[in-house]
Automatic annotation (TrEMBL), chain A:
<keyword id="KW-0411">Iron-sulfur</keyword>
<dbReference type="Pfam" id="PF12838">
    <property type="entry name" value="Fer4_7"/>
</dbReference>
<keyword id="KW-0479">Metal-binding</keyword>
<dbReference type="GO" id="GO:0051536">
    <property type="term" value="F:iron-sulfur cluster binding"/>
</dbReference>
<dbReference type="InterPro" id="IPR017896">
    <property type="entry name" value="4Fe4S_Fe-S-bd"/>
</dbReference>
<feature type="domain" description="4Fe-4S ferredoxin-type">
    <location>
        <begin position="59"/>
        <end position="88"/>
    </location>
</feature>
<protein>
    <submittedName>
        <fullName>4Fe-4S ferredoxin</fullName>
    </submittedName>
</protein>
<keyword id="KW-0408">Iron</keyword>
<dbReference type="InterPro" id="IPR017900">
    <property type="entry name" value="4Fe4S_Fe_S_CS"/>
</dbReference>
Automatic annotation (TrEMBL), chain B:
<dbReference type="GO" id="GO:0016491">
    <property type="term" value="F:oxidoreductase activity"/>
</dbReference>
<keyword id="KW-0560">Oxidoreductase</keyword>
<protein>
    <submittedName>
        <fullName>FAD-dependent oxidoreductase</fullName>
    </submittedName>
</protein>
<dbReference type="Pfam" id="PF07992">
    <property type="entry name" value="Pyr_redox_2"/>
</dbReference>
<dbReference type="InterPro" id="IPR051691">
    <property type="entry name" value="Metab_Enz_Cyan_OpOx_G3PDH"/>
</dbReference>
<dbReference type="InterPro" id="IPR036188">
    <property type="entry name" value="FAD/NAD-bd_sf"/>
</dbReference>
<feature type="domain" description="FAD/NAD(P)-binding">
    <location>
        <begin position="5"/>
        <end position="313"/>
    </location>
</feature>
<dbReference type="InterPro" id="IPR023753">
    <property type="entry name" value="FAD/NAD-binding_dom"/>
</dbReference>
Length: 165, 363
């Protein structure tokens, strides 16, 4: 699926999902990068030592989840837009997903948007909590959206303005 | 006749880095490009680049182009000739014929030449492939990202390599609907992260599919429909698998081939290497071809990436300057560094094809 459709399978993802125990403690990074390509800015971006040093630039990123504080500074630096931060402690029923979003119009905080999965399919609605779009993000804004808790590992994109297109 | 120490042909990432490296060692450089601004392909690339910090990773192509051009333009050792096309190389006396602004013809006699002319797009044969609305991916990118014009409303992208994937993404960013990305190969050729990026937008990627034919609207004569069909593992179309897509644009992105005319004229020994996109010049580790004093760098030396084009440019620039006796004391160290960087970029599984190609080139 990944090499024919671009959509990772459950097995692909299993190697990337932060351990349940860590997820219960607060926001944490999930890096959906599955192919050895010559690239390492995720490592350079993380100032907390959570993304391990690349021995070879073709290495896959490997994360020490205990060092990750969920700051999300790596999200806008990944040219593959493959990095997300998940917070499953947001509320009883909701989690948050922070994702890179390079489309206009940008949503505003408080706006309701469509939630999309990895194939672009609509899976529900969620509220935008934060839009980070400063100099640091450099035209790759980072959107934090509240999603139903059971969709924390499903939602990977949003659509602003609902179905009108 | 104009004289210069090193003529660099092409102001893309390879030519820019070659000029900077040669000037850094102390040589005088004339950089020639047929466009009205420097940057080559970079001027249309709005996405962030891969690589490491040294190769400007996670910076957008457009910004890398600006950074490098600014350095070149302020360097007193580099003279830049824009709107200038090198149309001939005379091997007998090593003179370049340059057409300036489509008006004047200038002859330049350089001591060394670095050819960094890049690559041109391949096309695809199918019925009616010349209808209005059928573009190469580079043309679509130029229209959208340089001139701010969208090519149409509904696009069929042909080719799931990095270019097909990233141009699809850029089309979606411009508000254009990409109906599907097809590729005759059984697997996606581009980076999977690019593929995931467009998949998340709901764009279907269909591998083992190719274009059968295109049809025009009777009134306007412009593209209206595309028929695609499946191919088997020998790339043979399977009748009965046809699908019709209503599109007003077909964007062809099936690969690049080196723009090597100048190298042929110079009499460089050439070899057909499919892994590198077509005919490329044999050369040694210093990027010097079989014609002494003629160097190559970037896509014309083998279609690869901007990151490797930049380092090859650096290598060619350093070596050309050194061969003229210029060395500010750092040559050995810088040359070694560049060779190591190139090796590490190409060392992974996606570099396999490039490694196979390069192995056939050692002269
Ligand atoms: C859509 C797309 C996405 C890409 N994404 C990436 C990426 O993410 N990361 C990455 O590393 N690479 C990427 N690349 C590849 C990268 O752009 C090229 O590998 C790189 O630009 C090659 O550099 P170059 O200097 O060899 O050639 P070019 O950039 O093509 O420059 C060649 C220059 O030579 C000039 N020229 C040619 N012939 C003549 C002549 N006779 N006289 C005068 N001037 C001449 C041209 O005008 C041009 O300016 C991408 C390419 C495309 C098309
Ligand atoms: S979220 Fe912050 S701490 Fe965690 S990996 Fe990214 S940059 Fe490092
Ligand atoms: S920056 Fe992104 S694409 Fe590059 S290695 Fe890290 S996660 Fe993968």
């Amino acid at each position: 699926m990944l090499c024919t459709k671009g959509i990772p399978t459950t097995e692909d993802l299993a190697t990337r999902i932060p351990p349940e125990e860590r997820r219960r403690k607060g926001p944490v990074v999930m890096i959906e990068c599955f192919q050895k390509i010559p690239c390492n800015p995720c490592y350079t971006a993380c100032k907390h030592g959570a993304i391990q040093k690349f021995e070879d630039i073709n290495d896959l990123p490997s994360v020490n989840f205990d060092n990750c504080n969920g700051c999300g500074l790596c999200i806008s630096k990944c040219p593959g837009l493959a990095i997300f931060v998940i917070d499953e402690t947001y509320s009883e029923t909701q989690a948050t997903v922070s994702l890179p979003f390079e489309f206009l119009p940008l949503p505003h905080e408080g706006e309701e948007v469509d939630l999309l999965d990895r194939s672009g399919k609509k899976v529900g609605k969620g509220k935008v909590l934060k839009v980070r779009n400063g100099k640091y993000e450099d035209r790759t804004p980072v959107i934090t959206v509240a999603v139903p808790k059971e969709l924390s590992m499903v939602v990977r994109n949003i659509k602003v303005g609902g179905d009108v297109r | 006749m104009k004289k210069t120490e090193i003529a660099v042909i092409g102001g893309g990432p390879a030519g820019l880095m070659a000029s900077l490296a040669a000037a850094e060692m102390g040589a005088r450089v004339t950089l020639i490009d047929r466009n009205s601004r420097l940057g080559g392909q970079l001027v249309k690339q709005t996405h962030m680049f891969f690589g490491s910090e040294k190769e400007y990773a996670s910076i957008r192509g457009i910004d890398i182009g600006k950074i490098l051009s600014a350095e070149v333009l302020k360097n007193p050792r580099i003279e830049t000739m824009l709107d200038s096309t090198v149309i001939g190389y005379y091997p007998d006396d090593g003179v370049l014929g340059v057409e300036v602004e489509e008006k004047t013809f200038v002859k330049i006699k350089p001591e060394k030449v670095i050819v960094a002319t890049g690559a041109s797009e391949k096309f695809l044969p199918f019925e009616n492939n010349d209808l209005p609305g059928i573009y190469g991916a580079g043309a679509v990118q130029t229209l959208m990202n340089e001139h701010g014009v969208v090519p149409g409303d509904n696009v069929l992208m042909v080719g799931a390599g990095n270019i097909g994937l990233i141009v699809s993404y850029q089309l979606m960013q411009a508000g254009v609907n990409v109906k599907a990305i097809i590729d005759a190969a059984p697997n996606i050729g581009g980076y999977w992260v690019h593929a995931s990026k467009v998949a998340r937008l709901g764009v279907p990627i269909m591998t083992s599919y190719t274009v059968k034919a295109a049809y025009a609207n009777e009134l306007t004569g412009a593209l209206e429909r595309a028929v695609i069909w499946q191919v088997d593992n020998k790339w043979q179309p399977i009748p009965g698998t046809e699908k019709v897509l209503k599109v007003d644009v077909i964007c062809i992105s099936v690969g690049l081939s080196p723009l090597a005319e100048i190298l042929w004229q110079a009499g460089c020994k050439m070899k057909y290497v499919p892994q590198l996109g077509g005919h490329v010049a044999l050369r040694n580790e210093n990027m010097e071809t079989t014609v002494p004093g003629v160097y190559v760098a970037g896509d014309v030396a083998g279609v690869e990436e901007a990151s490797s084009a930049m380092i090859e440019g650096r290598l060619a620039g350093l070596n050309a300057a050194k061969s003229l006796g210029y060395d500010n004391g750092t040559f050995n160290e810088k040359r070694r560094e560049a060779l190591e960087q190139l090796e590490s970029l190409r060392s992974g599984p996606v570099g396999e094809k490039i490694r196979q190609g390069l192995a056939q080139l050692v002269s």
